[in-house]
Amino acid sequence: MKKYTMIFGASVLMLGACSPEEPQEEESEETTDGGSDELGEDDPTEGEPEPADDEDIDEDEMAGDYETLAENLAAPWGITLVDDGTVYVTEREGQIIEITDGETTPMSLALDEEVHQEGEGGLHGMVLHPEDEDTAIIYHTYVATDGIYNRIVEIERDGDEWQETDVLIEDIPGATTHNGGRLAIGPDGYLYATTGDAEDPELSQDTDSLAGKILRMNLDGTVAEDNPFDDSYVYSYGHRNPQGLDWTDDDRLFSTEHGPTANDEINHIEPGNNYGWPEIVGDETEEGMETAVMNSGEETWAPSGAAMVGEQSFYVAALAGEQLIRFDVDDNTTDTILEGEGRWRDVVYDENENMFYVITNNTDGRGDPIDEDDRLLRFEGPEA
Known about the structure:
The chain is an all-beta fold. It has one domain: TolB, C-terminal domain (Neuraminidase). Helix content is 1%, strand content 42%. The protein has one helix at 59-62, and strands spanning 2-6, 13-14, 63-70, 76-81, 87-91, 95-100, 103-110, 123-129, 132-144, 147-158, 161-173, 183-185, 191-194, 213-217, 234-237, 242-247, 253-257, 265-269, 294-295, 303-309, 313-318, 323-328, 333-339, 344-350, 355-360, 376-380. The strands form 4 sheets. Strands 1, 2, 3, 20, 21, 22, 23, 24, 25 and 26 form a 10-stranded antiparallel sheet that branches. It has an 8-stranded mixed sheet with strand order 4-5-6-7-11-10-9-8, with no helix packed on it. Strands 12-13-14-15 form a 4-stranded antiparallel sheet, with no helix packed on it. Strand 21 (313-318) and strand 22 (323-328) form a beta hairpin.
């Protein structure tokens, strides 16, 4: 076991100051709309609320034991849990890593279109088919003759290799940045996918485009019949680069979204709604558009993967913010849960075991990796 900094119920903040006081500016190419996306840029504002006084917090209660399940991961992106305790981690360059019984096994991926890893592109989200743990669905970037795209495909396991068996969607607009990439199966049994604006903000407002959207489909890739737009995968629109999805116990869907340099967002997603990009960001309002439930103001979180616990606790892995943050989506407050290990890419919660799984993301060219990076960690969740 290794000891890391863990804080449950400490450092409560009110929104606009939910990120660290000094987020680290990170190396990357600039995005076309001037936003930093997964970068960090320190631009504090005057008059922001201060963290709550935590002088009375017992230091022993703030430290917890964390188990390191895997080390030396290469730009990991997503975590997928298997019922038997196996963990899969996707790496952006195109490998799936299997972690089981203390052993780490790289698994090759045979696809009809090669994974294109450039900037933020590559192999992203992965979910297992609910009826067959040897079948999965992945989201990845690829290159066609006319540009960069993303696709969602079904794969099946054959020994230490995963092989493509079906295409659900192709030709999702892509770019060096803003590719979205998160997959999740909802409580309704449908597959949800986040897509970025592909560095073309106007596509987010175009409901005929798959860019800048949250998509919803059957597990075979056909359009869900009760989607809000006729014969369309589009479930919600007006997104910039959403990368986290999960549901509360009462089936409310929330997402994380990268803002332009700042104004990162937590959104409550409902069918057919317009979440405003590029017309509004943060706490701005416009008729017919949804304002974010919570936003980072002029600071940045660069929020990626997320896990909901209960009816209101939304745990978010922050890249530039370099924290695991708990957002109370009903009370609009935050707690810092984990920090001091650099960038965090994804978090998954195992409700049956009350355990969190998190991955660092320091080897993607934007962090400051140590010798063991990147790592998959596991730690116990909050008491019921």
